[in-house]
Structure formats: C-alpha cells, structure tokens
Known about the structure:
- The chain is mainly alpha-helical.
- The chain has a domain at about 105-310: Hypothetical protein, domain 2 (Endonuclease III, domain 1, Orthogonal Bundle), CATH 1.10.340.30.
- It is about 50% helix and about 0% strand.
- Helix 13 (about 250-260) packs across helix 14 and helix 13 (about 250-260) crosses helix 15.
- The longest helix has 18 residues, at about 195-210.
- The radius of gyration is 43 Å and the shape is elongated.
- The relative contact order is 0.09.
Amino acid sequence: MASKSVSTRITRRMVKSSGEDISATFTKHPVNLEKFKSKPKKKLAACSENSTLAPIVADPESEASAVTKRKAPSSKRAHITIESTEKETDSNPKTSKTMPPNWETMLNNVREMRKDSDAPVDTMGCHKCSDETESPPVIRYQALLALMLSSQTKDQVNHAAMLRLREHGCTVENILNTSDEELGKLIIPVGFWRNKVKYIKKTSEILKNQYNCDIPNTIEDMLKLPGVGPKMAHLCMKVAWGEVTGIGVDTHVHRIANRMGWVKTKTPEQTEKALESWLPFDLWNEVNHLLVGFGQQICRPINPQCSSCLNKTICPSSKAK
C-alpha cells in the first residue's frame, strides 16, 4: 500500500494543470545545464608549452593575401588564377621556335634538285681533301687544315691547295718543319693565305704539344684553336669524328636560309643559332651539304636561277613567280 500511495502522489503531481506552480519538482531534482552548453573550439594554431607538436607556421604569402583582401573588400567574388608549375617544353629538346611555312616542302625540293650530287662540294669539298690511306690522326689533321683553308675560298681552289700539301707531306711534324714562305707558296691562291699560314703553324704547334699530333675531339677545344670558327669546328667534328655538334653555316647557307624565309638574320653566326632553334636535330647533319651545293648551282649569290628552281612558287625571294 505504501508503494501504491507514492505512485499515486507522483501521478497526481504530473497531471496537475499547467497553471499550477511545479517548480518544486525541479527544485527537488535539479538539472545540470552546464553539460549542454557548447564547448569552445580548440585553437589549432595554439601550442601549449609542454606540447610535443610542432607549431603551425603561417604562410607569409597567404597572410599578405588575406590582409590585401581585408583592406580592399569587394562585393564580387575574387578571381582566382591557377598557374601550372610545369614548364611547357617542345617535343624536340633542341628546338623551341615556330617553324617557318613550307620549310619541309622546300627542303624536299632541294633534295630533289641535289639528287645527282654533281656540285663542286660533292667532289672537292673538305670531306674529300684527306688522304684516306694515312693513319686516322693524319686524316683528321688534313680535314682540319682543309677547313681552315676553305674560308673565303672556292672548293676547286681549296682542293687543289690540299693536293699540293699532301704531296709535300701534310703531317703535323712536316708542316712545322716547313718555312712560312714555302707553306705560303703551297696554299696560294686561297683567300687570306698569309693569315692562314700563321694560323696553321700555331695550330700545328698546339696539336703537337697538347694532342699528340691529333686534333681535339670536343667542340669546345676545337674552337680554342687559332683560326677556327664555329662553322669550321662543327664541320670538322662531323668529318673527322662523325659527331654532329651544330650546323655549319657559311655564306651559302646564310644567304639561302634568308632567301627562303627560314631565318631573318644578318650574320652567319645569327643564322646558325636561328636554324638550330627550330630545325629538327636529325636534319642538322645534311643541311649544310645540301644548301652549299644548291647555292653553287642554282641559288647563286648573283643571278640566282629562280626559273629552274622547284621552290619558285613558294620561295618568298623568288623572281619567277
């Protein structure tokens, strides 16, 4: 009965009308409201003294950007530019510039016009001046001398001078034992023969002392030799060592490359850099020989034979359009 009486009192108390004060009920059974309050968020950037975590370091660029945005608020959403961290590269690592129009067609047409290989450079060029019966170092030395003599000199004149040197004895030791006067008589009438005598003597002395009567096998060392420029060095590396290190640009290559619109340059050195910037590397080996012969026969310095040129309709310099 006591238990029933307690239950009855609780029931009656709970069903009392809403107008009756029931605060006594909550007084007897107080509720702890503190646990229902929202807990403060932890400050991620803070680090207690005893903490082992590394402090968070703010990005200076991010802070500067945030300050800038607070100083200049805008109703529009800020435009975000996403920049790629990867650099764009050309498929060919040795080329980068845009290729000129119709260059492949022009090159193929030059190949067609040169298919008979009957230009002076084909039979009397520097690659035809060495005595192939000699030892490899002597063959390379003769190729170098032929290139040194070739500057401002026609292939026919240069080839004849090399034949005289070979008959005299074209080795490092023998050239050093030859007087300047006699050496000059052997190479006349090549262009600037007096200067070339001096260059040949100085170069031969270097080859004897530093290269055991052979020639350098790098383009860097080749360019250090007296009287050897970029064109000679690149061609010598190709002829003597079979290595392509660049495009040899002489007056023919310089003139024709500008006429066909492949480059817009004023010097052979500029033409070399311009051609190497876009011409595929696998074509560097043949472009000098092709254009030199083409310049000797058709695209001549004076009175070019535009009417017989296969490029007459697409060459920007053609006089036969």
